Amino acid sequence: MMQDIKITRIGSSRLPEIDFNNIPFGKEFSDHMFIADYQDGQWTNPRIEPFGTFQIHPAMMSLHYGQSIFEGMKASKNFEGQPMLFRPEMHARRLNASARRLSMPEFPEDLFVEALQQLIAVDIDWIPTLENSALYIRPLMFATDAYLGVNPSKTYKLIIFTGPVGSYYAKPVRLWVEQVYVRAVGGGTGEAKAAGNYAGSLYPAKLAQDRGFDQLMWMDAHEFKYVQEVGTMNIFFVIGDTVITPATDGAILKGITRDSFLTILRKKGYKVEERPVSIDEIVEAHENGQLREAFGAGTAAVVSHVEVIGYGDLLMELPAIENRAIGEMLKAEIDGLRNGTIEDTYGWTVPVELGEWVMG
Hints:
D-amino Acid Aminotransferase, Chain A, domain 1, 9-stranded mixed beta sheet, 29% strand, 23% helix, 360 residues, D-amino Acid Aminotransferase, Chain A, domain 2, globular
């Protein structure tokens, strides 16, 4: 049964302090956040309250044993000014898939979507309207038991907070093919949006940046032969007339942007393949002049074009952005669906209903 969400409003909004013409990604936060607590086997006390810090116990289990997961979403306004969510039910399902993998409690999907609806409605004025900007949404679940023992926690907290953002990557990226460190293995936590997955990527990413690259192309853990992901995104290649992306095999995150791209491409009649992609195939396609495009796919950037792939001593330069049709088409399609200039025949965009809580 749907629980009532108590709303406590902030006394004075920080909105006048924000320069919407210059929004750094992930550094500005809206006025309110949603919180729910898990105890005695159920989620309780769902509420929206002013955004702020909270006290934690030094023995809080998520700090020691890593029971912490998250999602990344966006809200935007269509050309009529209506706030829109993009595939919120898929994010709810993926959050719960991550929770299951880390032995955490699932969160009711209907309450998750209702929390998003009410939180976005309360902070509607925080949604930026400039091109390539949006209101980023960060759902987060973590263990809260104060106990030094390697067991699942019995208590948890789920928080959803938001903040206005501009572009994640302002320019095409240079990738380094990682041949020492790995992101994930089959049977591990690669399919979950677990905090520890990202912590483990930071050191090898720094090594790549020291070489003059922006991010990593992660390879499989057994042979360092097959491509997994790029940075924190799924990866797509256009080789000849075919769009190829690595098949999700238990080590690759099932990206919602990835799924959306595949659906759009197939509907438009493109030749699409989900299968293992070897680095040897990428090198051969580049040498033959058939590597037309490479781009990351994710919520934050939508499309992140790859400019250069560094593989040992080999530097593979890709065609200029203006000569890339597919990545640009996909980004325009997602942006058009979000702003309402392209008809949503997929049922992906969900309007935020401006109910009584907006005025209450």
